[in-house]
Structure formats: structure tokens, C-alpha cells
Design a protein that fits this description.
The complex is a heterodimer of chains A (about 325) and B (about 270).
Chain A (H helix, E strand, L loop, with lengths): L1 H8 L1 H20 L6 H8 L1 H10 L8 H27 L7 H22 L1 E7 L4 E4 L3 E12 L5 E12 L2 E9 L5 E3 L2 E17 L5 E5 L3 E4 L2 E10 L7 E9 L2 E8 L4 E2 L2 E18 L3 H23 L4
Antiparallel strand pairs in A: 1-14, 2-3, 3-4, 4-5, 6-7, 7-8, 7-14, 9-10, 10-11, 11-12, 13-14
Chain B lengths: L2 H25 L9 H23 L7 H22 L5 H21 L18 H29 L3 H38 L7 H21 L6 H24 L10
Classes of the chains: A alpha+beta (about 325), B mainly alpha (about 270).
Chain lengths: ~325, ~270
């Protein structure tokens, strides 16, 4: 028993485990994640592809090597922390707890991460103004307004989803503005502004003078190329309505992007109308693990500050 | 040329001016320090920060949201840290002079690199995800921490090149002290504030995004530096190698990930 305790108390073990985690996580950033064994063999060749698949680097966070090294590291950290703390209590030297607090923070952080991995729930969805959605916990959220504000150069400035939230017919939030970096909090759940899209269609006149419509994903044939209708965005000036977005493909390769407004010609086709509904992309997430993580981060800040003060005074 | 770019050029010139007396006094025998290069460095840091302030006024938000601004801020921070290091040091050793000279070269290189054609210099207000004061804390504190790591790295190179044992001791002391100060600042900036910002922006505090993973790897290298030193009492060559490795990882986390690996942080290319 004493031998096991000594083994896990070892700083050498900590250094070895840190090295393993460094090398393994480093390699994981160089390999596309979530690919199948066949795809890895296609990308890296038969020998390297099989090696990557066998090592689990392609599924880094769920691989046995990651779990084993992390579990060993947590055991190592726990034993070191207990050992260090009990020795401090017995010692008559000046007590300073900065490193103990840092170690404790890492253990709390690990606990939070474990809760997040096992308990966190997330639901991504899109809504148009007037839509309502049922959320976990018996909440109903309805979108009363959605604004997509752009800079003059067309880059996104803000996505603002204005929502009402009710539970059992009782209004809990009225006209709450969800923005990126400004989520809505209801109990343990948070609703985040993630992105923006549109379900669009165009009306056009074909070369024979007939009127037709096209939905997202459909394409015009332009000789050897296909001009695929990929969506619509609001024109920078609201008075101009919508701009239709196209991507030109030669075979399966995209070769150019185009945007056209109402009345403009695409070869022999003339765009007559562009209609679209703006859709807001939201994410509802419940993560009980974030509270321990926040506590851990605060403890880490305190521990590092105390350690720095002690070191600057030359206590250690 | 826009006013903010004029300030960046003046800042670059001041860094170059600071290096001249450093070289002259470095080559002089007698071990005395030049009396004013740290003040020039301090001025360079302030002027480079002026670049950030002017751009911030133009976009109505702290301008640390693209690669150009990050490089200028990094250089400004490094200049100011070098000046303060010189001011608080009780005596000017050759180790200190080397550290300050090496740091000055890195500050100069950063501003030079920021002028590269592949670095977008447009003054653009931030996209929604970057519009957060947690992001500002995340970026600025990470770079202040990295400024100390840069000084530790140049000192580590000096350690490996030096044969004199007395000099090695002095160099080792600077290498350790700079990591000891930079580590908590980097931890707060890169990891703590970064995680809080990610939670507010994306609803998840950690995604194993390449930038996050490399920031964690960098942090683990400096954690190993401190543990080998404080607990295992290993100093000298091992510390020097870890310090150099840590800074190489810092640079890759900052620049390499943006241009080579894709992920949530890929917008910094814009």
C-alpha cells in the first residue's frame, strides 16, 4: 500500500504524465477528428492510417490513452495534494497554501469537466419571428423579433433575437434580447445566440419567357458549370430587400461565388423576386459542470496570486 | 499612411534606437549598463500602445481583435516589461543586459512581422463573437504573460551559450523569475478568461479547439518548468530547454495555429 502511495506521490510520474498528455494532445491537433478508420487510411496511407486509427488520436477525447493518462494524472494530483497538505500541517515552518489551492483547483476543475462530459445537454435550433419552441424544464420560448445588423462592408455586427419565455402560461421573461456573448439564463439553462441563416427562394424568368421558382440547393445550368442557389442575405440597405447568393461549380469543385439582386440577369435567366425568412440560430444548453469549473478557475487565480506573493518575498 | 500606422513606424524606430546603445555597451568591457535605452524602450511601448488606442477609438472597442493588433500589443507589452525589468533590477549584470537586448530584438521582429503583406491591417470593428470584454482580458493578459516568457527564452539561450558558472547562476535567476511572474498572468489570460469568454460566446468553456489545445500544451510545458525546478530542484540546462520549448510553443499557439490549423479561432486570419 505504501508503495502505491509513493508511486502516485512521485513528481517524476507527474512529469511523465504531463509529457504524455502534451505529446498526445499535440498529435491530435494535426489529425482530423472524428474520421472513420477507412477515411484515415485514405488520408494517411495504409500504415500510418491504421496506426492513427489504432492509437485513437483521431478521436482524441474519447480514446483509451487520453482517459488512462488523465485518470493517472488525477490520482497523482490527489495523492500529491494530500501528502503536501498533511506535511504542511505537521511542519512548524511558515505555512503557505498557494500551491495547495492550485492543486485543489485542478481537482475541482476535473470534477467540473467530468460533470460536463456526463451531464451536459445541448439543443441547437433555428427560429423565425413568430415561431415558438419548447425547451427542457417546461419552458416555452417564442421569438418576437430577429435583427441581423451588418457593418457597411457587409460583415456581421450583431444578431439580436428578442424572445418571450413562459412556463405553464406564466411569462418569465418579456422581450429579452439574446446576443452573442449575452445569453439568456433561465434556471440552470442558458440560451445562446449562435448564428444566422435564411430559408430563401427566388422567382425568375427563363429563356423561354416562362416564370419559375427555385429553392436553396437547386441550380442553373451554365454550359459545363452549375450555378447553385445557396441562400440569401439582407442587402446592406434594408430598402433593397434581399441579395441572392450563388456558388458556381465545375464538376464537384466550387470555383466562384456570386451575388445577385432583384432584376439582375444570370446569363439568360432574370431574377424577378427574392423572398426569404431570416432564421436565428440558437443553442439551449444545461451544464451543471460550469459552476465547479468557475469555482476552480477562481481558486486557481487565488492560488497563483498567493504563490507569486510568497515567491517574491523569498519564502520558499 | 493612416495615423495609427505612423505611430507603429515611430514605435519601430524607437525600438531600433534602443538597441543601438545596448549593442555598444554590450561590446564595451567593464560591465556597465547603458543609462537610457530602457527609457527609449518605455517610450516605444507607449507609442505602440498609442497605435492600439487610436485604432480602438476608430472602432469604438479595444483593438486587440486581429493578428496585426495582437502583434503590436505583444511588442508594446514586451518593451514596457523590458524597461520595468531594467528599472527594478538592483544591479546591471551582463545576464540582464543580454536579456534586455534579446527581448528588444524580439520586440523589433514582432513589429516588422506585423508589417508583412500577409497580415491584414484594416481597422475593422469586431464580429459578434469578438465583441466581449472577457476577450479583451483574455488576449491582453495572455500577451503580457508571453512577454515574460519571451525574456525567459532569450535568457535560456544565453544560459546554453555561457560557460562561466557565476554568469550561469545570474542568467538562471532571470530565466526563473520571468517565468514565475509570467506564468500566473498567462494562466489568468489564456486559460481562465479564455474559458469564461468561450462559455459566454459559444456555450461551452472548452472545445479542444486546436488553439485551446496548443495554449494548454504551452501551459503544461511551463508547469513542467516550475515543477522540475521547485519540487525536483532541477535547474540550469533542463530549465533552459523547457523555457525555449515553451516559447516555441507560445509562438506556434499564437501564429502557427492561425495559419496552419483550423478551428474556432480561425477568424483571426480575417
Amino acid at each position: 500500500m505504501n508503495g502505491i502511495f509513493k508511486f502516485f506521490r512521485s513528481v517524476r510520474l507527474a512529469i511523465v504524465l504531463i509529457s504524455v498528455i502534451i505529446v498526445y494532445s499535440l498529435l491530435s491537433t494535426l489529425v482530423p477528428q472524428g474520421k472513420s478508420g477507412v477515411e484515415l487510411v485514405q488520408s494517411f496511407g495504409p500504415v500510418l492510417g491504421r496506426l492513427v486509427a489504432f492509437s485513437g488520436i483521431g478521436n482524441f477525447t474519447t480514446s483509451p490513452i487520453f482517459y488512462v493518462s488523465l485518470t493517472m494524472f488525477i490520482l497523482n494530483l490527489s495523492v500529491c495534494s494530500v501528502d503536501r497538505f498533511t506535511r504542511r500541517l505537521k511542519s512548524k515552518a511558515v505555512r503557505h497554501y498557494g500551491p495547495d489551492i492550485i492543486h485543489l483547483s485542478l481537482l475541482v476543475l476535473t470534477m467540473g469537466a467530468l460533470i460536463t462530459t456526463t451531464v451536459r445537454r445541448q439543443q441547437d435550433f433555428t427560429m423565425a419571428a413568430g415561431d415558438a419552441v419548447n425547451l427542457p424544464g417546461g419552458y416555452t420560448m417564442s421569438l418576437t423579433n430577429f435583427q441581423f445588423i451588418q457593418y457597411p462592408d457587409g460583415r456581421p455586427k450583431a444578431w439580436i433575437s428578442t424572445v418571450d419565455v413562459s412556463q405553464g402560461g406564466r411569462i418569465l421573461r418579456k422581450a429579452y434580447r439574446i446576443e452573442v456573448n449575452h445569453p439568456l439564463t433561465i434556471g440552470m439553462m442558458k440560451v445562446y445566440q449562435m448564428n444566422y441563416s435564411s430559408d430563401a427562394s427566388i422567382g425568375f424568368i427563363d429563356p423561354a419567357g416562362q416564370t419559375d421558382t427555385m429553392k436553396v440547393g437547386e441550380a442553373f445550368s451554365m454550359g459545363a458549370d452549375q450555378l447553385v442557389f445557396v441562400g440569401a442575405r439582407p442587402a446592406v440597405s434594408p430598402a433593397q430587400g434581399w441579395v441572392a447568393q450563388f456558388q458556381e461549380f465545375r464538376g464537384t469543385s466550387p470555383i466562384a461565388n456570386f451575388e445577385f439582386g432583384t432584376g439582375e440577369k444570370l446569363g439568360q435567366y432574370t431574377i424577378q423576386t427574392i423572398t426569404a425568412r431570416e432564421l436565428t440560430g440558437l443553442r439551449a444548453a444545461v451544464d451543471p459542470g460550469f459552476i465547479p469549473v468557475l469555482i476552480a478557475l477562481t481558486l486557481m487565480g487565488i492560488g497563483l496570486t498567493l504563490t507569486s506573493i510568497h515567491k517574491s518575498k523569498g519564502v520558499d | 499612411m493612416a495615423f495609427n500606422e505612423v505611430l507603429a513606424v515611430i514605435g519601430l524606430a524607437l525600438v531600433a534606437v534602443a538597441a543601438i546603445p545596448q549593442i555598444v555597451f554590450f561590446l564595451k568591457k567593464g560591465g556597465e549598463a547603458d543609462p537610457f535605452s530602457h527609457w527609449v524602450l518605455f517610450a516605444a511601448g507607449i507609442v505602440l500602445l498609442g497605435t492600439i488606442v487610436v485604432r480602438s477609438i476608430e472602432i469604438d472597442f479595444p483593438a486587440v481583435t486581429n493578428t496585426y493588433e495582437a502583434m503590436i500589443f505583444f511588442s508594446a507589452s514586451l518593451c514596457i516589461v523590458l524597461a520595468v525589468l531594467r528599472l527594478v533590477s538592483k544591479k546591471s549584470t551582463s545576464a540582464l543586459r543580454w536579456s534586455i537586448f534579446g527581448g528588444t530584438i524580439i520586440a523589433f521582429a514582432l513589429v516588422m512581422l506585423s508589417s508583412s503583406p500577409i497580415v491584414e491591417k484594416g481597422v475593422n470593428p469586431p464580429i459578434p463573437a469578438l465583441h466581449s470584454y472577457w476577450l479583451v482580458l483574455h488576449v491582453t493578459m495572455a500577451f503580457v504573460g508571453e512577454s515574460f516568457f519571451a525574456i525567459s527564452m532569450v535568457t535560456a539561450i544565453a544560459y546554453l551559450l555561457t560557460k562561466d558558472e557565476e554568469r550561469k547562476k545570474a542568467i538562471d535567476r532571470i530565466m526563473y523569475t520571468t517565468v514565475m511572474i509570467g506564468y500566473p498572468i498567462y494562466t489568468a489570460g489564456a486559460l481562465i478568461f479564455g474559458a469564461i469568454w468561450a462559455e459566454y460566446a459559444w456555450g461551452v468553456y472548452w472545445s479542444w479547439d486546436p488553439k485551446e489545445t496548443w495554449a494548454l500544451i504551452t501551459w503544461l510545458v511551463y508547469t513542467a518548468f516550475l515543477h522540475t525546478r521547485l519540487v525536483m530542484k532541477v535547474k540550469g540546462k533542463v530549465s533552459a530547454i523547457l523555457s525555449i520549448t515553451g516559447f516555441l510553443f507560445t509562438i506556434f499557439t499564437f501564429a502557427g495555429v492561425n495559419y496552419i490549423l483550423s478551428g474556432l479561432h480561425s477568424y483571426v486570419r480575417q
